[in-house]
Amino acid sequence: MLEIKFNVKVSININNNLLIFKGPRGVSSLFIFNSNIIKIVLNCTYNSITVKSNKKNYLNLYSSLIKQKIKGVLCGYRKTILIKGVGYKFILIDKNDNFFKLKIGYSHLIDIKIPSNISLLHLRKNSITFFSNDLVELTRFIFLIKSYKKTNFYKSKGLLLKDENIKLKEIKKNKK
Questions:
Q1: What is the spatial distance between Cα 129 and Cα 144, in angstroms, rounded to a whole number?
Q2: Quick one: residue 112, left, alpha or beta (phi over 0 = left, psi -120 to 50 = alpha)?
Q3: What is the signed CA dihedral for 91, 135, 132, 76, rounded to 10 degrees?
Q4: Domain boundaries for CATH 3.90.930.12 within the chain
């Protein structure tokens, strides 16, 4: 059993197997897959939610997901992608349609549509910042973008996260 306390600004509702979180940054939901293994009890008077399970891995999983959702509707999540390389850049096509293009060394531009629950904060030639109240969806979208161009560990080129550190490999030299 694990008790999670949350802020007064967050309201949580339980409908069947769906937890709905409402806060200043928006609405987010969490589906509980197996309600036989895990039980969630909401205590509105003490602003807490109790997660009960016989299996420790489910207990830890759902408690961390609930904490992420609470933090997301309170303050949200922000991630920045940096693009390194000559001629690599982000191009904004239509801000209303949440649509941009990537120029990353291919003979064509790559079109990317931003999902509705993710918003574009900053767009520069060499960096782009996204904001969302759902960390899982934001991370999934960021790694979808990163999958278009593999990072070159010899030249430090490609798509990188802002805080990501890469270790450069040495170039092999021929012995003669």
A1: 15
A2: beta
A3: -130
A4: 2-74, 77-161
As assigned by CATH, the class of the 2-74 domain is alpha beta
Residue with tokens 């904001």: 131
How does DSSP classify residue 114?
P
Q: What is the pLDDT along the chain (176 residues), one digit of tens a residue?
A: 777 877 778 888 888 888 888 989 889 888 888 766 677 777 766 778 888 878 888 888 888 888 899 899 999 999 999 888 888 888 877 666 678 888 888 888 888 888 988 988 888 878 889 999 999 999 999 999 989 888 887 887 888 888 877 787 877 777 66
Q: Model's pTM, two decimal places?
A: 0.82
- How far, in Å, are 15, 43, 55, 71, 93 from residue 113 at the CA level? 31, 40, 39, 26, 10
* C-alpha distance from residue 74 to each of 45, 60, 84, 96, 157 (Å): 19, 21, 33, 25, 35
- Euclidean distance between CA atoms 32 and 23, whole angstroms: 20
Q: Which amino acid belongs to residue 99?
A: F
CATH fold label, 77-161: Outer Surface Protein A; domain 3 (3.90.930)
Q: Hey, is 91 helix, strand or coil?
A: strand
